[in-house]
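Bench notes, afternoon.
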Amino acid sequence: MACRCIIIDDEPPAIKVLKKYIETVPALEICGTCNNAFEALNLLTTERVDLMFLDIQMPKLIGTDLLKALPHAPKVIFTTAHKGFAVEAFELEAVDYLLKPISFERFLKAVNKALHINHPFTENPAPTISFVYFRADRKMIKVFLDEILYIECIRDYVIIHMDKERELRVKITLNHVESILPGNQFLRIHRSFIVSIHKITAFTKTDVEIGRIELPIGKSFTKVFLKLTPNNENLPDGVAER
């Protein structure tokens, strides 16, 4: 079931941009646009809404006050040109706070965060299934996290290596990928590699094995890696824990 979204903004160009972004992501479904908070209140009484893209500076009733007035508010991503409301927004448990003009990459990062909070509208609600969308070949491609083996950075691109020898090439930074992946499932082991923790079959202080694939552990990442293996702090170089 798709995540049902509304856009609340008094600026038509901002609505147009967000509507275009939402229509690009298959997991999202737009169910209405509102030019002010009072239109939004009416819509919220008649439609099931999972996620609001909410501007703050609007006439008569600002976005943060609208959110405070809702007894059972949907998830909220604030979209604003003003930095000054960020603290209040996060005190109201907003998913994210996007400053205009909003890039598609920043929008996508916020959406991925919203989709993974309690998984209320994933296509399969089973807690072991989780996914993110990546933009490649002019479309949004769903990647299930439990299918990823490791992610490799090559210049301005990352290669997502998946099971069954599948690969996806995406123009994005590895830092960005790291920020949208759950830290309890993925680990940065090198400036060029992120690995799925559950796919690791063996390791030493200097490398990680995923099946027949060996990946190096960067010197600056060794301590981070060993935090996950507290019983192996004295593991010699070249001796794998199996």
